Amino acid sequence: MVLLCFLAATTFWVLNSLNKSYIARISYPIQFVYDQRQLVPVKPLPEEVMISVTGKGWKLLRKSLMFKVKPAELSIRGLPYVKQMPGYALRPAIANALDGLELNYVATDTLYFDFDRIGTRKVPLGVDTTKLKMSPGFTYGGNLAITPDSITFTGPLQIINLFPSPYPLAVPDSPYSAPFKGNMLLMHDFTDLVKANVRKAKVQFQVIPLEKQELVVQPVLKNFPPKYRLRYVNGPVKVKYGYHPRNRGKLQLDQFQVTLDYARYNATDSTIVPALTQKPEGARQVTIAPGKVKISLTAL
Fold first, then answer.
1. How many domains does the chain have?
2. Containing domain of residue 222, as a range?
């Protein structure tokens, strides 16, 4: 009986309290109204604002718990150039959405948003041939063909206008030793806001063998002690190199430079690992033989 009386008194108190008027700060949902065919938000839009209201406890409870709350619809003039709006400017839209509550003021100082116009941009597709990995003894031979040869992006203009032209296809990591014909995917560095009309393209190009030569070179000596005679035990030192057939006879061979640095001398086996410090333009896959140069020093 005591418990029933307590429950009855509590219920009466709650009901009586909910029928009174209160002033409260609450979070209220907002919804942007815009032409989704022409505009797109490039950043997440704010979904609510803080407001001060006066109303019955019942109404405040329902608004606080978001029971059937109608969002305030914001139609903002000047999009996409307008990027913010002061809180007091939201008052008419919020006041119209409130049901049974009186709006005192908008507590949110400023509402920030970022829209952009939706547009399209067509750019050619491309392959960065400098990133193609070739097997030893082979090189890119040209005759690049891409189908389709272009891509059309649809999305925020401020994003798609930053895309490179030509737009690169993703180059596989596997090395090539024969002419290639297959698919390459687009490099996916654009956001979910951007749509593309293709995701891959058919690519073909030639891969040809390098022409190979070797050349005896006189190493440049660095940090060697003075007054010693140097002898190459396993010499001479040679550079082995390849080149595209179109560069036959055009390489400036005097630009090959190999350096022996005494600071890298290994006393255990009397060797120095030679370093290629210069090569002519067009020389590919250059190696030095021997890989370790064994030397002998004799005092003068």
1. 3
2. 211-299
